[in-house]
Amino acid sequence: MRTVIKLILLTLFLLTIYLQQPVLADTADGAKVFKTNCAGCHINGGNIIRRGKNLKMRAMKKYNMDSVSAISQIVTYGKNNMSAYKETLSESEIQAVSTYVLNQAQNNWRKK
What we know:
The protein is mostly helical. Helix 2 (27-37) packs across helix 6 (91-106) and helix 5 (68-77) crosses helix 6. It is 59% helix and 0% strand.
């Protein structure tokens, strides 16, 4: 009986850890999602609507958007002039584009 309980607890523990881990997104998919849905306003990490609220690392840090989690939130739900994409993109696409944006910002939007 004790072995079964230990096994159940271990399974629950591992499941909890697994569910808390961010999805590893393919940056190629993120680039494709970005090109299709974001580049119109955010070409090369800029912002044609509000210049100061761009996708450059300095601005992202200033507005606490310098994590995949924060980027995912704004992509999903939008904010002010930023449209929400929860009805347009799947969760994996949102994760992929958020990872891509953060990676690009960290690399100063240099093309590879």
